[in-house]
Design goal:
The chain is built from 17 helices and eight strands. The chain has about 350 residues and is an alpha/beta fold. It folds into three domains: about 140 residues, 3-Layer(aba) Sandwich (Rossmann fold); about 60 residues, Helicase, Ruva Protein, domain 3; about 130 residues, Zinc Finger, Delta Prime, domain 3 (Up-down Bundle). The strands form two sheets. It has a six-stranded parallel beta sheet, with helices on both faces. The mean pLDDT is about 85.
């Protein structure tokens, strides 16, 4: 039996998860649960897309032998596989009994659930099983979120002023996924500055020109270079193009997570709906198109190209607009080429 406190979860997953046969993540913070689940998959499966499989609750109930069989099977390469079950509930307890009772190491069962009360049969079974860990994950309060953001920025040598911190949370809100996404953008934007000021937060955080910047990013990532160039020129004239590269870098990171979920067996609709931070629903078609064009390898290359361009804009600030425009055009051309090859 391993019952985890939320503050222990990341360290446990990184260092001790391999000593267990399963993990139950449940609670009222979907973004935090999603992040911990992704960390668990990455810790156990690494970059092997075939080492993780997703099983629907309905399929597990329809065939009670499915989960136990998957748990006991071995991959062709001999490593452990991660079996993820989302929206898990008490109805799975009987199906999972062989897994709970097994004292030998098998594959790894990752259970993701909504809030489970203390009387939940699934929660009780996981908390009592010898080789299963369980963790309740709930939304963090303002102080915990502020501490998390401060710790994250400190890794990059950055610290928010008091007025910048107040403004940051005014714009970012209280959802952990959104807050950390905004903190990531801020870290990219203010890298090397040491102190993050109110003007930095106002420049990069929140929904300023959100629709237009989303439109620009979607046009770049789907290979519509001419339309992307027109949108970028319009944003530049409005003074709203500053910071577009960190926004694009954040978008590419989110695409990587989405692509990883789809590769692990999650349907696109479910992966899109569960993405944290959430995508605006109206972009669903554009995001689907981008995933058809960009695979994980090409997304990593795009991320590196964006990071290099960001570094150059800081070295040659007078050429900021030109460097940004060249990077956007290069990515749009690459997307168009890959789209034509896949047609």
């Amino acid at each position: 039996m391993t019952l985890l406190r939320q503050v222990e979860a990341e360290g446990f997953i990184s260092k001790r998860l391999a000593q267990h046969n399963g993990l139950l993540l449940h609670g009222g913070d979907p973004a935090a649960i999603h992040a911990l689940a992704q960390l668990a998959v990455k810790t156990l499966a690494g970059s092997d897309p075939f080492a993780a499989v997703s099983i629907a609750v309905a399929d597990a109930l329809r065939d009670p032998a499915l989960l136990p069989t998957e748990f006991q099977s071995r991959s062709l390469l001999g490593g452990r596989r991660v079996i993820m079950v989302r929206e898990a509930g008490d109805e799975l307890v009987k199906v999972l009994e062989p897994v709970f009772a097994d004292g030998a190491m098998g594959n790894f069962v990752l259970l993701v659930a909504d809030q489970l009360g203390k009387t939940s049969k699934l929660r009780k079974a996981c908390e009592e099983a010898k080789l299963i860990a369980a963790c309740a994950v709930y939304e963090e309060g303002p102080e915990q979120l502020a501490r998390r953001v401060g710790n994250y920025l400190s890794v990059y040598g950055l610290k928010l002023t008091d007025e910048a911190e107040a403004r940051f949370f005014d714009l970012a809100g209280s959802d952990r996924g959104t807050v950390m996404s905004e903190a990531e953008k801020l870290a990219l934007y203010a890298h090397g500055a040491g102190t993050v000021t109110l003007s930095d937060v106002n420049a990069i955080c929140g929904d300023t020109a959100e629709f237009d910047t989303d439109l620009l990013i979607d046009r770049v990532m789907t290979g519509d270079g001419e339309a992307a160039d027109r949108t970028y020129a319009a944003l530049t004239l409005q003074g709203a193009a500053r910071g577009i590269l960190p926004l694009l870098a954040s978008h590419v990171t989110r695409l990587q997570a989405l692509a990883s979920d789809v590769m692990s067996g999650t349907g696109f609709d479910t992966a899109f709906r569960n993405a944290r931070p959430i995508f605006f629903f109206g972009r669903k078609g554009a995001i689907a198109g981008q995933l058809r064009i960009w695979d994980l390898e090409s997304l990593l290359a795009a991320q590196q190209a964006i990071a290099t361009a960001i570094m150059h804009t800081r070295e040659f600030s007078a050429l900021d607009e030109a460097i940004t425009g060249r990077c956007l055009l290069a990515l749009a051309r690459q997307a168009r080429l890959m789209r034509l090859r896949g047609a």
